[in-house]
Write a structure and sequence with these properties.
The complex is a heterodimer of chains A (about 400) and B (about 475). Chain A has about 400 residues and is an alpha/beta fold. Helices cover about 50% and strands about 10% of the residues of chain A. In chain A, helix 12 packs across helix 22. Classes of the chains: A alpha/beta (about 400), B alpha+beta (about 475). Chains A and B meet through helix 3 and helix 4 of A and helix 4 and helix 12 of B.
């Protein structure tokens, strides 16, 4: 039997919930299931049951808790300011010490730590994609193949690592920015990194690129392995020590990196771009939808900043209901809970498909892959791009 | 009360996934928004059509099991909880079935979230007028069952003024349709009978609601006071002057501080009270109303009137108001929301009385009011782990409600009677009227299986009906 007396904050956080239920409609799993047990209010009560009596941990209740995406949409609407994610993290840490994680989850987490295997997987995925093996397997309904097939890599040059070191601006430098290249981003979204360097150089900044993959530990943290998450985060302290600050172009990573006390100043690309002057060469006349990553809007509360940035750029994304709801990507959630993930994706696309658009814009790799999966599922022609790729087009 | 035979019968027709019987999961349905009362159901069933609701109801009748409908469970009077019975959870009936702009109406399932409907018709310049503070989560079915109000009901009416028709599963399992897209009718006003019946007369499975055209202009003001009575006296004067704001809301200091602690809206922390006033309509009318308010308020306000200068500003003010009750969670582990109503000219004395009750019981009470409607929301702060405090919170509320009756008011403005205020119903209406209400209930539900023990008291003494005494006296 597990000992739960190590729970310190849990009780305090749970007590702050006044059971008003305002969080229900912000929760993707409640919206798709209609179950109280899959709502934030219900899950807080499950956590409460766990801390009051550990024997309550039956498989079904754990499953309700585990299907939480940790998107933190509930925190944005909670009038009492319940820090749901902290309670969820504490409970997850404790539960996961006492149960074995699914194989796929353990595999992914260890591969992210192992810096040599990830590039290898990248090439395997690429070759399988080129030979249409992935597309064939995904038609057979094999989940990992479906996920792999949503990886948007076509050109070989977008798989080759960017030269490490300093990429200089051709203007008088305003400062040295470290680019948090990450792990998944640094294998499958090199194109986005190239655009980021280009944008930052154009804005007058030198950009430092680390030699190896780095990792913020977000996926480990969400899977209840705070120790590894902390260790991974600490590794980047030295790497960026000469930079004025570090820009992160993955909302999931920037949220995680900011959650720890650190000597490094991390800025999400969105807040950085909103803080500097941007001279546009081209005006924008295409239809876009902005799908804010949860880790940007909810975890970092940067929704207003993003609106300000769009206003500054004189770009008006289509206003649509559903953008504050998670897409179901949520890190490795798609692999661990494929059914729930797909139901949530469909919920998102039910709203999205009402509009004719040229681009769907996001700023997080997990969301990017998930939205691409939806685009393929519904056979749409719009392009999914990162926010910096949009900026690159107008600079 | 749930028997094996009942469950076997249900399982023969519905998939297991729609039937929730895990005891730990059922505990999550022990409350709605009212934390003071707990009742664990014996089973929760999630139908996805009117026909399924009707079939479940018939099974409940066959096996004599009490049942209750539930939406998002944001209600504040314990209306959607039931001990040992069946909860018919309507969250999967969440589709907007039709939007009919030429007839200015929409047909929705009961589980559609209030705010979603407005979002859906916003681009066409329409909205669904009832706007309870819970509108981002509460469902239209629940709004109809409780006849929900909201800040903008002062001018635009409560839910009953926006319901055109309903499909209802009666307590005998038969499906009936009342009203329609038409606006006038010769029949007995059944729409009004069912609206606000708190799920005691039937289960609503489809609703035809009115859509309102967005106003041509809207002005939102923040007025600051150093004395609560200045705010409440001004409310009466504004209405006397012939100005009907679309909303006229008061928030007191304790509430302001809770809001500012967490939401940081920019309300003045030191003010004794603030009023949020919204004016809407034709530009010329609104301008005239604004001038009137500026003129009348001079002798009451302690600072210059602040006006929202953008939609963002306006939304920010409303966010502060609509999240004010929940923000109390930031300063207290639990609170009990009273929902009494007084004639408008009794606002000042009732708020003074609330202060007296607060001192008498040594309990903190924060105040929110739909001041224009005389609808008060004293929020009584208590510690849910302290039985004595729970009792005191309940007693505070009862004293306030009795005072409301004395002033010629009523027990509830919008949260309903549910189980929470049922012990005061006879006091409010007298034996004769309660008997009439009982007859109506019996006419629909002769087995008394649909949401029993809510809204209309059974034939027993008031003392026995006081669920709080029963629950917490041990």
């Amino acid at each position: 039997m597990m000992k739960l007396n190590q729970i310190s904050n849990l009780s305090k956080i749970i007590d702050e919930c006044v059971h008003c239920g305002l969080c229900l409609s912000s929760c993707p799993t409640y919206l798709t299931s209609g179950l109280e047990a899959k709502s934030p209010r219900g899950r807080l009560l499950i956590m409460n049951q766990i801390q009051e009596n550990p024997e309550v941990l039956d498989k079904e209740m754990l499953q309700h808790l585990n299907t939480c995406l940790d998107c933190r949409g509930c925190e944005t609407v909670c009038p009492s300011g319940v820090e749901y994610h902290l309670a969820f993290q504490e409970t997850t840490n404790i539960i996961n010490k006492n149960q074995t994680l699914p194989f796929l989850s353990t595999f992914i987490l260890s591969e992210i730590k192992n810096k040599k295997i990830l590039p290898l997987i990248k090439w395997v995925v690429w070759i399988s994609k080129k030979l249409r093996i992935l597309s064939l397997l995904s038609k057979l309904g094999i989940n990992t193949a479906i996920q792999g097939n949503s990886i948007p890599v076509n050109k070989i040059e977008d798989l080759l690592k960017i030269k490490s070191g300093i990429h200089k601006t051709n203007q008088i430098s305003k400062g040295l920015i470290g680019l948090y290249t990450g792990c998944i981003m640094n294998e499958w979204f090199i194109k986005v990194h190239k655009s980021t360097i280009n944008v930052l150089n154009t804005l007058g900044y030198n950009v430092f690129i680390p030699e190896n993959n780095i990792c913020c530990g977000a996926l480990h943290q969400h899977s209840g392995d705070s120790g590894t998450a902390f260790q991974l985060k600490s590794e980047s302290e030295n790497i960026f020590k000469n930079c004025d600050f570090v820009v992160v172009n993955s909302a999931g990573c920037s949220a995680e990196l900011k959650s720890n006390n650190t000597k490094i100043k991390y800025l999400d690309i969105i807040e950085f771009l909103n803080s500097v002057e941007i001279k546009m060469k081209n005006s924008w006349n295409k239809n876009i939808i902005w799908d804010a990553p949860c880790h940007l809007s909810h975890a970092q509360q940067l929704a207003t900043t993003t609106t300000e940035l769009f206003n500054k750029l004189k770009i008006e994304p289509i206003s649509w209901s559903g953008q504050e709801i998670c897409c179901g990507g949520a890190g490795n959630y798609t692999l661990i809970h494929p059914q729930e993930s797909e139901e949530i994706l469909k919920l998102k696309y039910n709203q999205l498909l009402k509009y004719e658009i040229n681009y769907l814009v996001t700023s997080n790799p997990g969301c990017h892959l998930q939205l691409e999966k939806g685009r393929q599922l519904y056979n749409r022609n719009f392009q999914i791009i990162h926010f910096v790729e949009l900026i690159e087009m107008i600079l | 009360m749930i028997t094996e035979q009942f469950l076997n019968s249900i399982k023969r027709k519905l998939s297991n996934e729609k039937i929730r019987i895990n005891p730990n999961e059922l505990k999550l349905y022990a409350n709605d928004g009212l934390q003071l009362h707990e009742a664990v159901p014996g089973c929760v069933i999630l139908p996805d059509s009117t026909e399924e609701i009707a079939w479940i109801v018939k099974q409940c009748i066959k096996y004599k099991i009490p049942f209750v409908p539930r939406g998002a469970g944001t209600g504040l009077s314990g209306g959607s909880v039931i001990s040992d019975g069946v909860i018919i959870q309507l969250s999967r009936l969440n589709k907007i079935l039709e939007i009919d702009i030429p007839n200015r109406c929409a047909i929705v399932q009961p589980g559609v979230v209030n705010a979603y409907l407005t979002q859906e018709v916003k681009s066409q310049g329409y909205h669904f007028a009832p706007d309870p503070s819970s509108q981002i989560a509460s469902t239209i079915g629940g709004n109809v069952a409780e006849n929900a109000g909201g800040p903008h009901t002062l001018k635009h009416g409560v839910t009953v003024n926006h319901v055109l028709g309903q499909t209802i599963v009666l307590p005998n399992g038969k499906i009936t349709k009342i009203g329609g897209k038409h606006r006038y009718s010769a029949e007995l006003d059944l729409n009004s009978l069912f609206t606000g019946s708190e799920g005691t007369l039937g289960i609503i499975s489809e609703i035809i609601v009115n859509l309102s055209k967005d106003p041509l202009s809207t002005r939102t003001l923040l007025l600051i006071f150093d004395k609560i009575s200045n705010a409440t006296d001004l409310v009466t004067e504004i209405l006397l002057a012939g100005v009907i704001p679309s909303a006229l809301e008061m928030i007191d200091q304790l509430c302001i501080q809770a809001v500012e602690n967490h939401l940081k809206i920019g309300f003045p922390k030191n003010a004794s009270a603030i009023l949020i006033i919204e004016l809407d309509g034709e530009i010329e009318n609104v301008n005239w109303e604004l001038e009137q308010i500026k003129h009348i308020s001079k002798k009451y306000v302690s600072e210059k009137i602040i006006e929202a200068t953008s939609e963002k500003d306006r939304q920010n003010l409303w966010r502060g108001r609509k999240h004010a009750a929940g923000a109390i969670g930031n300063i207290s582990p639990a609170f009990y929301t009273n929902d009494g109503v007084v004639p408008r000219d009794k606002l000042t004395p009732i708020l003074e009385f609330i202060q007296f009750v607060s001192r008498k019981y040594e309990m903190k009470i924060a105040n929110l009011c739909h001041a224009g409607d005389g609808n008060i929301h004293p929020l009584i702060l208590y510690n849910p782990k302290d039985k004595k405090e729970i009792k005191k919170a309940f007693d505070c509320s009862t004293e306030i409600l009795l005072k409301c009756i004395e002033y010629g008011g009523v027990l509830t403005g919008e949260h309903g009677i549910g189980i929470e205020k049922i012990h005061l119903m006879e006091k409010m209406f007298g034996k004769q009227e309660i008997e009439l209400q009982r007859k109506i209930k019996h006419g629909f539900d002769k087995n008394n299986l649909l949401n029993p023990g809510k809204l209309i008291p059974d034939k027993m003494g008031c003392g026995e009906l006081n669920i709080f005494n029963k629950q917490f006296s041990s």
